From TrEMBL:
Name of the protein this chain belongs to: S1 RNA binding domain-containing protein
Alphabetical list of PROSITE patterns matching this protein: S1 (PS50126)
Domain S1 motif: 249-312, 330-402
GO biological process: translation
InterPro entries found in the cross-reference section: NA-bd_OB-fold (IPR012340), Ribos_protein_bS1-like (IPR050437), S1_domain (IPR003029)
Amino acid sequence: MIFRRDHRSQKGQCFVLMPYATKTLDDGQVIDWDEHYKQVLEPAISAAEMTPRRADFIFGVQPLIDRVWQGIQEAEVIVAEITGLSPNVMYEIGLAHVIGKRLLLLTTDMSALPVDLARYVAVEYSREGIGLLKLSRDLEANLRAARTAPLQEAMIIPLVGGEVEAVPAVVEFVAETYVTVHAANNRMGFLHPAYVSHTRVIKDMRKHFRLGQSLNGAFIVDVDGESQYSLIANQESPWPKILADYPEETTFIGIVEAYKENIGAFVSLAHGVNGLVPRSQLPAVSLKRGDQVEATVQRIDQAERQVSLRLERIVSQVEVDGDWAEYKAGTEYTGTITRLVQDRGFALIKLPPGRVGLLNVNRMSMEFREMFTSGQVKTGDKVNVEIVDANAARGRIILKTT
C-alpha cells in the first residue's frame, strides 16, 4: 500500500502496537498477548483518561495494515509492546516514527532495546509477582506525562485533498508567541513559532517580524485540523536525516560556525543543523569561527531543534589576520553598506581596508533608523560609524552610527 496521510490525530486516542494471540518467545516465555491487553494495558490506558485502541478493534473490510496505519495516524500517543521484538511491531513503530508520533515503549528486557529506539521513553517491567501491577501504574503515569510533552509530530505533511496552499502574505500584527498575517487572497491566518524554521526555535516573534513585512509562505492544515500559515511548508525537515545519520554517541568533525562567550560553540553538523558545545565544556583557549573540532552527539531534541555536543578535541584553528590590530573600539570610519536586512534589523558595513562590521538597529541614530526602516538607504551608500567592539577571536566587529 501507499502510506498517505489521510487521517488527523484525535485527542485522547491511545493506539497500541503489539503481538496478537499466544506466542512463545525465544527465552521460552509463553504469553497470551490478548489477555495482556485486556487485563493490563486497556485498564491502565483508561485510567489515564484515554481511549485504548488496537488494530483488531478498528472494524471494516480493509486489510489489517490499513487499520494499523489509520490507528497510528489518529493516535495522540502510541504504546508499543516490544517484548520479543516482533517484526510486525517494529515495522509499525517505523511508520509512527515517520510522522513523529509520541511513542511509549514497553519491554521486559531493556538490554534488548534497539539503539535506534533509545531516544524514546521505555518502561521495563517484570511478569513475575507484582510486576504487572507496577507496569499498569507506570503506564498510566507515563501516558499522562506524554500528553503534556512538546508535540513532535510532523504537522506539515500534506493531507490528501491538496491542503497546502502557497500564497504571499503581509504581517498585520506581531506578538511574542504569534504573528497575524493577511494573505493576497484576502485570507487571514496565524504564523506560530513552530512554522518559522526547521533548525531553530523562535522564542520571541517580535525579534524576527515587523508590521508590514512581506512573507512568502503557505496555508497548511495541521494534525488537529487547524489552518496555519507556514514558512516551511515546502521545505524538507532535516531532522529525520539527523536522527538517522547522527544517533547519540556519534563522533564527527565539524566547523565552528559561531562562538558566544556565555553560551558556547555552535558546530556545523549536517543538513543546515548546528550542534552546541556548552561553554562549561570548552577549554581555556577560545574557539572562533572557522576552527575545526571533533565532537560527539550527546542528545538530539527535535522539538526544541537542539543538538547537544561534547567536545573531544580541537583539530585545527584558523589564524587571526594581522590587520585586526587596526580595528579598535572608539575608532571612527566612513564605511560602505554591503547588505541591508530590514526584517532582522541589521546592516553590514564594509570598513577600510576591508573588514565588515555589524550595525544593529538598536545602535543606529534615530535619523538613520528611520531611513533604514523606511527603505531610504541602499547598498553602496556611505555611513559614518564608530567601532563599539572588535573581537579578532570571534571575527566580529560591532558598530554604531555617529
